[in-house]
């Protein structure tokens, strides 16, 4: 049995195998939980081994997408998605106040409700 002595080659091939494993079905095990409160909701995402910088949160209209990308250490332009989750936001969510933070290995996306949701509003009755 021949031993490969070129360490750079071994590092390179190990990265390629790791990347191919991800492309070929290897996934990051993610846990998603949604906690609802009176004034809003919180989406909690925990993904084992995912760098906090790899998380992305994108809002388009009422669609919130949370995903993570694995970038090849040798070529930052080459990326593979580790997970992707799409949430349709209800109309009571105030999209201008959505916040995302990463703490203790967990991504939290806070979805506050509009203040008008909590205040009763009297509707004027018109005479015809």
From TrEMBL:
Annotated source species: Pontibacter ruber
Gene3D superfamilies, A to Z: 2.60.40.790
InterPro entries according to UniProt: A-crystallin/Hsp20_dom (IPR002068), HSP20-like_chaperone (IPR008978)
Stored Pfam families: HSP20
Protein name per the record: Hsp20/alpha crystallin family protein
Protein family membership: Belongs to the small heat shock protein (HSP20) family.
Domain of life: Bacteria
Residues in SHSP domain copies: 22-128
């Amino acid at each position: 049995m021949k031993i490969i002595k070129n360490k750079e080659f071994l590092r390179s091939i190990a990265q390629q195998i790791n990347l191919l494993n991800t492309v070929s079905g290897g996934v990051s095990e993610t846990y998603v939980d949604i906690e609802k409160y009176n004034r809003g909701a919180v989406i909690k995402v925990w993904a084992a081994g995912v760098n906090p910088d790899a998380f992305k949160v994108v809002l388009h209209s009422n669609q919130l997408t949370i995903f993570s990308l694995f970038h090849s250490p040798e070529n930052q332009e080459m990326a593979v998605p580790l997970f992707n989750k799409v949430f349709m936001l209800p109309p009571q969510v105030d999209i201008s106040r959505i916040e995302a933070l990463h703490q203790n290995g967990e991504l939290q996306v806070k979805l506050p409700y509009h203040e008008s949701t909590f205040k009763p509003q009297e509707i004027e009755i018109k005479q015809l």
